[in-house]
Amino acid sequence: MPTSGEVAAMVQRLEDAMNSRQLHLIDDVMTEDFVRHCEATPDFDVRSREDFKDFLRSNTESFPDNVQTFRQVVVEGDRAGIWCTYEGTQTGPLGPFPASGRRTTFDFGGVFHIRDGKFAEFWVTWDNMTILAQLGHLPAPEPAG
Asked: Which residue ranges form the domains of the chain, and what is each CATH number?
């Protein structure tokens, strides 16, 4: 089992690979049979490392300038929890939504399962309604109160 420091380094390598678009570097930190679970993107069934790379490529087609910043990493046993910020400008279609030219910034969280020293599974979630409202695809929510 990797140490907390080794897992934090793996998370940093994943962040760097995604943000630099050097997806071949993901091979070093992710199992071939990697599985991603995400209710927010039901059309992307990720059941392998290559599927995950395809998801990232698709996301970059919608948001070419996207940057994901992993702000917090908590490691316990064979799990690593992350809290991140995503920023990007939608210059390509996003599912049924045309390019808006608008920028979005939102937080997302997830938990990795580590097997044999690599990320084997990932549960991730975010708020699609907030993102779609920021991009102008939905009315902005009314303030509470």
From this structure: 4-134 (3.10.450.50)
Task: Please count the other Cβ atoms lying within 10 Å of the Cβ belonging to residue 136.
Answer: 14
Q: 141 pLDDT exceeds 70?
A: no
| Helix (DSSP H) and strand (DSSP E) numbers for the chain | 3, 5
Q: Could you identify the residue written with the tokens 């303030």?
A: 143
Query: Rounded to the nearest 5°, which phi and psi values hold at 49?
Result: -60, -40
Give CA–CA dist 142/126, Å, rounded.
19
Residues 75-99: what's their mean pLDDT?
96
Contact 18, 68 (CB under 8 A): yes
Place of tokens 């109160």: 145
Q: Rounded to an integer, what distance in angstroms lies between the CA atom of residue 54 and that of residue 52?
A: 5
